[in-house]
Amino acid sequence: MTEVSGSSSRFSSGSKGTFGTVPVQHTIESLAQRINACEEENDVLTRELSVQREASKQLATAHFNHLTKEIAVVKGEIAVVRGEIGAIRDLVGKLCQTVASMEGMLGNLKDESDFTPKQKSFLSGFFGRGK
């Protein structure tokens, strides 16, 4: 009795007779060899697939880490812009208060003759008054 073993299969050929014109034992041994070759190729392909999966996983992780860092940078830039917007709002608020104060002072003046020529020049350019 002849035994042919593969990576995970075990075939035993002990039958006598023929399969068509080929002896049965020869046919069984030939099939066993082909199955073993297929199992070896499957093992090789499985290892290659495992390597490719690991490489893909590492690449995806690297991309994810890079994007996470980029997002953190953008969030930081957004925070800076928000701070600048807040500072601009504060300045605009102060400017509005100053303009309102100046308008109030102008409203309290009874006569534009109270202005000096320099003040009149400034006011004509700034408010369109004091001519």
Describe the protein.
With 131 residues, the protein is mainly α. It has one domain. The protein has two helices and four strands, in the order ββββαα. The protein has a two-stranded antiparallel ribbon with strand order 1-2. A hairpin with a 2-residue loop joins strand 3 (18-19) and strand 4 (22-23). The protein starts with a strand and ends in a 5-residue tail after the last helix.
Shape: rod-shaped
Please report the number of helical segments.
2
Helix and strand string, N-terminal first? EEEEHH
Structural class: mainly alpha
**Average pLDDT score:** 81
Q: Which residues form runs of ≥5 with pLDDT under 50?
A: 1-13
Please, how many domains?
A: 1
**Strand portion, in percent?**
5-15%
Main β-sheet, spatial strand arrangement: 1-2
Rg, alpha carbons:
46 Å
Distance between the termini: 125 Å
Describe the sheet with the most strands.
Answer: 2 strands, antiparallel
| Beta strand count | 4
Helical fraction: over 70%
Keywords: Coiled coil
Quick rundown:
The protein is mainly α and 131 residues long.
Using brief descriptors, characterize the structure shown.
131 residues; mainly alpha; two-stranded antiparallel ribbon; coiled coil; disordered N terminus; 2 helices
Write the topology of this structure.
Elements: E1 2-5, E2 10-13, E3 18-19, E4 22-23, H1 24-108, H2 117-126
Antiparallel strand pairs: 1-2, 3-4
